[in-house]
Amino acid sequence: MKDLFGKALLDYQNGNYTEDIITSTSISEDDVLPLPYLFRSYNEMPKLEQKALDLAQGKTLDVGCGAGSHSLFLQEKGLNVKAIDISKGAIEVCKKRSLINAEVKNILNETETFDTILLLMNGTGVFEDLANAPRHLNHLKQLLKPNGQILIDSSDIKYMYEDDDGNYCINANANYYGELDYYISYKNEKENPFKMLYLDFETLNSACISVGLQCELVLEGKHYDYLARLTVD
Question: Which residues of 138-157 are buried (b: 16+ CB within 10 A; e: fewer)?
């Protein structure tokens, strides 16, 4: 991994902002991810993220923390927050932004326990594909303190397969339609593609049931996105 995401965050943090990140997927064309958006304040965040931060309590783990905007807000509220990301550059930025506890780590290597676990900005993406969802959910379950909660968001991207007649062109024999290849480029460099999973709520609920988690729909967004709260069944 070239960590182009981390390089871009560091450029912005260090005052070298000249370009944005370009993203695309196996079913969508190039799109711009503005770097300032990754450094947004609470008031600039979508309602789903604000709701998740409002619900966070106790010792909190921020999974895939990026530039640390969610963690910093909670830290300023007085919560004990740990931020993790597989991007070395992202964690360096978090520390530069005065986040007390930030670490380069894959969620599957985490061993501490928490009252709240946050997975935001398509949190189901860390599962990579549907087959891996139960493994990740079971591991997250083991990281919860008694009466703990997992706050996770995602989107039902079925709409991306809709044709002009309102029909959905989804191959029933192919993998789950939310399994995508995700591409990042920055300053004329291309990152190695990685897998990204978008889960509709009912499929997430089924995966949760399989590992003994209760899945509650907390809030729906304006564009097929939602926030869910997972607790031990």
Answer: eebbebbeeebbbbbbbbbb
H or E element in which residue 133 lies: helix 133-142
Residue 24 burial (C-beta neighbours within 10 Å; 0-12, 13-18, 19+): middle
State mean pLDDT over 6-27: 97
Residue 2 identity: K
* Nearest-10 Cα torsion for 103, 116, 51, 89: 10
Give the model confidence (pLDDT) of 161-201 as tens digits.
877 677 777 777 678 999 999 999 999 999 999 999 999 99
Query: pTM of whole model > 0.85?
Result: yes
Beta carbons of 117 and 151 less than 8 angstroms apart? yes
Token look-up 């999974």 returns 63
As given in the structure block, the two tokens for residue 8 are 């871009």
Maximum Cα–Cα distance for the chain, whole Å?
52
